[in-house]
């Protein structure tokens, strides 16, 4: 959010989880599970995988078919160049997912800074996939990427990016995907191209020889065990055969054993052969802890209201009770998936009324132990909207800064359905600004109206701010009451925000800009300098770069070009060093740098920088009008500096539309009108990329993807016909006649992300 964005994480950082909060090294999810005694080697399937040159390997089957085991055996055959990721719920955000993939790749072969910048600037959306592939391809030799448990990834953005990656796997690389659910890749298209190897339940079912090996490994008379209908009844289901062997090992007569071959039978086995061997206290702990993705002794103590859970968990691991350790220190564990699902089903039947309370205790424990993000899901499951609101207010800024935009939006969409939550209007106010930063002006307005329609709340937010101060902060950013109003609202917000609020730099910036738009340049520069100090003290480098660009504008208004150039270069270095190309705050940086370069006669640099600014034009709307129009004005001046009439006209046309919604922006309307008059004085014109509208620029990152016009329209919330008409206009301006030619042309022009 404005003023609340901090440096993005590096690729070496794990996505947030209980494991990564405890261990500085790569966690177990970045390694295939170790081989265990008694595990049957799936030789025929391994040979099939090893012999395949298909870019995509797909393993899709219900639980218990040995997908993970097979992949682990296969990659051990492949050698060290394997990037393994066991997906978790936290990966259901494209930024988190691609950060995990990049982390796994980087552990095998170091990635260059380009990949880090891509992920930090993009939020992991589909548009960066072509560039990400280009960034990883040179690290050769080829590598195999494994994404296990992909059923945890369900967001539309993540699915679209995965599908695009599957279509663009680098030559001789392989992408192996394992899931209980249908894969989010264009399977039919890959199949028709001969680019996918698919293994399902029938292929993963055990042969008679493999079943015999499993039984023998379990110490069971394989010939006797398989003499009847066992293999037929289980249909070769590996976990069914394994559990049958365990039951027989425990003394169940082979001849008396009957199987249904389905999950019901697994439940019966778990109850009779596994859970019957635990004490009543252990059974109660197992049942209540099934609400948890991960287990630790202290956490289990808290939710089950017991003590000594650490010892119990360690003992259960030693007794092979389907509890799996997740770290070397035996601090964190998880259930085997089948055991957890069975226990959850039992809990829903036996104690449904206890489930919200268990989630509530889990949320409280995570909050008390400094893991607020892990607390959100449990607070939602407990229907504790008040706690969810408090957690979102604490988390939205750092999570947004990490690039996980989808995670923040998903939290806020959940809360949107709970308007009685405490601090609801404050969350809606921040949500309005989030939509504004994404270029979604209509949504920003809608959320702002909701925030202002609710009754005023008393009390303080977690950071010490008042709700009234937060609403004033929103109003100051949206600038709906013009320059005097935004300064008045900024001052009111200053009194209402907590002393440690990360948004104070934003308020100082708004006040400084208000003076700039009234041409009180001395006061504007002094307040901007204070805003820069506040942002730097908070480590908010994207916002520091924006303020440096503002001070560049002040210097150009004074016609002090040496100072302007100094501010411009400092801001540009900050953006480039930090990989901040895709940030909303960087648009003004690129625009002022382009104008500065044009003024200094460096036209190639001016054109290059203007293209970088133009890529961010879709984010510039009336929702955050001041910086949007400032950027478009500086960009138009740069275009005029190298006589690009169409580029200047397109930028000024967009500025005019913003001013139609926000007309009272000080000197900006007169400046736009003056520049439009200058555009008419340029006689020569050549329609080109610089004349693309913001709507047309939205299409550019999607052109190289596999998405059809209909699918592009669905992503952008516009009709297929609108996409078609915008594409026709884009082709005309680029001088091309097809999508493939447009991709090549935009790449040549440097318009691709």
Topology:
Layout: H1 43-51, E1 56-60, H2 67-78, E2 82-86, H3 94-108, H4 113-122, H5 129-136, E3 144-148, H6 156-167, E4 174-179, H7 187-192, E5 196-199, H8 201-204, H9 208-217, H10 222-225, H11 230-234, H12 238-249, H13 263-274, H14 280-288, E6 295-296, H15 297-304, H16 309-318, E7 323-325, E8 332-335, H17 337-350, H18 355-368, H19 372-381, H20 385-401, H21 405-416, H22 424-437, H23 441-453, H24 467-478, H25 482-496, H26 504-516, H27 521-537, H28 541-557, H29 561-578, H30 586-599, H31 603-614, H32 625-641, H33 645-661, H34 668-679, H35 694-699, H36 709-716, H37 720-734, H38 739-748
Parallel strand pairs: 1-4, 1-5, 2-3, 3-4
Antiparallel strand pairs: 6-8, 7-8
Helix pairs in contact: 1-2, 3-4, 4-5, 15-16, 15-18, 18-19, 19-20, 20-21, 20-22, 21-22, 22-23, 22-24, 24-25, 25-26, 26-27, 26-28, 27-28, 28-29, 28-30, 29-30, 30-31, 30-32, 31-32, 32-33, 32-34, 33-34, 36-37, 37-38
């Amino acid at each position: 959010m404005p003023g609340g964005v901090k440096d993005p994480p590096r690729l070496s950082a794990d996505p947030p989880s209980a494991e990564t909060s405890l261990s500085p090294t790569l966690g177990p999810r970045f390694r295939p599970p170790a081989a265990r005694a008694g595990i049957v080697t799936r030789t025929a399937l391994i040979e099939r995988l090893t012999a395949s040159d298909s870019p995509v390997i797909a393993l899709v089957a219900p639980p218990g078919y040995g997908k993970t085991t097979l992949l682990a055996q296969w990659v051990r055959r492949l050698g060290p160049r394997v990037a393994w990721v066991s997906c978790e719920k936290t990966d259901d955000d494209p930024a988190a997912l691609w950060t995990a993939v990049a982390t796994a790749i980087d552990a095998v072969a170091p990635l260059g800074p380009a990949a880090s910048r891509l992920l930090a600037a993009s939020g992991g959306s589909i548009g960066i996939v072509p560039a990400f592939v280009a960034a990883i391809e040179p690290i050769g030799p080829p590598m195999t990427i494994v994404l296990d448990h992909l059923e945890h990834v369900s967001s539309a953005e993540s699915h679209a990016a995965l599908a695009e990656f599957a279509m663009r796997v680098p030559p001789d690389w392989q992408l192996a995907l394992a899931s209980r659910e249908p894969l989010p890749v264009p399977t039919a298209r890959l199949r028709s191209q001969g680019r996918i190897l698919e293994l399902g339940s029938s292929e993963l079912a055990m042969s008679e020889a493999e079943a015999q090996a499993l039984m023998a490994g379990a110490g069971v008379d394989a010939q006797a065990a398989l003499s009847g209908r066992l293999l037929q009844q289980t249909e070769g289901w590996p976990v069914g055969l394994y559990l049958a062997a365990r039951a027989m090992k425990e003394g169940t007569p082979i001849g008396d054993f009957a199987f249904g071959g389905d999950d019901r039978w697994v439940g019966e086995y778990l109850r009779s052969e596994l859970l019957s061997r635990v004490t009543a206290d252990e059974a109660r702990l197992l049942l209540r802890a099934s609400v948890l993705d991960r287990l630790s002794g202290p956490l289990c103590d808290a939710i089950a209201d017991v003590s000594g859970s650490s010892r119990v968990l360690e003992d259960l691991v030693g007794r092979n009770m389907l509890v799996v350790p997740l770290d070397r220190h035996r601090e964190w564990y998880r259930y085997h998936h089948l055991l957890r699902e069975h226990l959850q089903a039992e809990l829903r039947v036996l104690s449904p009324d206890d489930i919200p309370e268990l989630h509530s205790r889990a949320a409280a424990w995570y909050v008390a132990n400094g893991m607020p993000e892990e607390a959100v899901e449990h607070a939602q499951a407990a229907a504790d909207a008040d706690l969810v609101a408090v957690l979102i207010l604490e988390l939205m800024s750092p999570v947004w800064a990490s690039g996980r935009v989808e995670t923040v939006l998903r939290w806020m969409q959940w809360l949107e359905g709970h308007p009685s939550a405490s601090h609801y209007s404050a969350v809606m106010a921040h949500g309005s600004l989030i939509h504004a930063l994404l270029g979604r002006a209509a949504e920003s307005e809608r959320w702002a109206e909701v925030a202002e329609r609710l009754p005023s709340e008393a009390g303080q937010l977690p950071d010490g701010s008042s709700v009234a101060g937060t609403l004033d902060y929103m109003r100051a950013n949206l600038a709906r009451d013009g320059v005097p109003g935004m300064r008045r609202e900024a001052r009111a917000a200053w009194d209402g925000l907590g002393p440690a609020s990360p948004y104070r730099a934003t308020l100082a910036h708004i006040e400084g800009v208000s003076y700039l738009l009234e041409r009180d340049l001395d006061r504007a520069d002094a307040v901007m300098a204070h805003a820069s100090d506040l942002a730097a003290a908070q480590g908010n480098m994207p916002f520091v770069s924006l303020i440096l660009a503002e001070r560049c504008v002040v210097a150009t208004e004074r016609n002090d070009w040496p100072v302007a150039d100094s501010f411009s270069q400092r801001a540009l270095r900050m953006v480039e060093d930090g990989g901040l190309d895709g940030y909303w705050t960087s648009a003004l940086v690129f625009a002022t740098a382009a104008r500065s370069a044009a003024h200094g006669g460096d036209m190639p640099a001016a054109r290059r920088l203007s293209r970088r600014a133009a890529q961010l034009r879709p984010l510039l709307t009336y929702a955050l009008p001041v910086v949007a129009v400032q950027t478009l004005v500086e960009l138009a001046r740069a275009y005029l500096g190298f006589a690009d009439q169409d580029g200047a006209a397109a930028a000024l046309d967009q500025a005019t539309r913003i001013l139609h919604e926000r007309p009272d922006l000080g000197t900006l309307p007169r400046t736009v009108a003056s520049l439009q008059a200058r555009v008419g004085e340029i006689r020569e014109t050549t329609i080109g990329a610089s004349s693309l509208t913001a709507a047309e620029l939205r299409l550019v990152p999607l052109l190289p993807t596999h998405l059809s016009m209909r699918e592009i329209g669905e992503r952008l919330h516009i009709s297929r016909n609108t996409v078609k008409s915008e594409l026709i206009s884009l082709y005309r301006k680029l001088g091309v006649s097809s999508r493939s030619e447009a991709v090549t042309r935009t790449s040549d022009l440097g318009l691709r992300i």
